Amino acid sequence: MTVKLTSLRADTRRENDGDWVELPELPGVALKVRGFAYGPFQNAKSQIEAKWARRTGGRDAIPAEEQYKANGRLYARYLLLDWRGFDETYDPELVEQLLTDLGYRELHDHIRYATNKVSQVDAEFVEAASGNSDRSSDGSSTLVAA
User: Fold this and answer.
1) In this structure, is residue 46 part of a structural domain?
2) Contact 80/103 with Cβ under 8 angstroms?
3) How many distinct structural domains can be found in the chain?
4) pLDDT per residue over 93-104, tens digit each?
5) 3-class secondary structure for the chain?
6) How far apart are CA 121 and CA 8, in angstroms?
7) What percent of the chain has pLDDT over 70?
């Protein structure tokens, strides 16, 4: 099988602007999220990681609870844009409060799932290769002078 190369291109508009993702485990619930590649998210995440590295000298692990809360703030501020299907109206302040509470681990999981779906590319396959041919050797041949 041959993969259509253009099918591997990420939909950067979708990753940056966000899109709705239905949650299979929660019928009727959908999250509007951006992709993990969203630039401001990546920048903020890098800043937090650099701060941690300076603080620990790269020697000590950051406590899991601190990592969880930092991720929650990042998800709330950069990735989760809206929701539907919950009994509470989407509110950015509420979202940050929930996502920094250790009791809402499952909501973190749903956000990661949705964010991965927004960034996912679906490879397309074509019947025959066009413009490509199989190598004529194993690639280890040497140039012979004439």
Assistant:
1) yes
2) no
3) 1
4) 999 999 999 999
5) CEECHHHHCCCHHHHHHCEEEECCCCCCCEEEECCCCCHHHHHHHHHHHHHHHHHHCCCCCCCHHHHHHHHHHHHHHHHEEEEECCCCCCCHHHHHHHHCCHHHHHHHHHHHHHHHHHHCCCCCEECCCCCCCCCCCCCCCCCCCC
6) 6
7) 76
pLDDT tens for residues 4-22? 665 455 666 877 799 999 9
Quote the pTM value: 0.75
For residues 121 and 9, the answer to whether their CB atoms sit within 8 Å is yes
Look up the domain containing 39 and give its range: 2-126
Six-digit token pair at 11? 């939909």
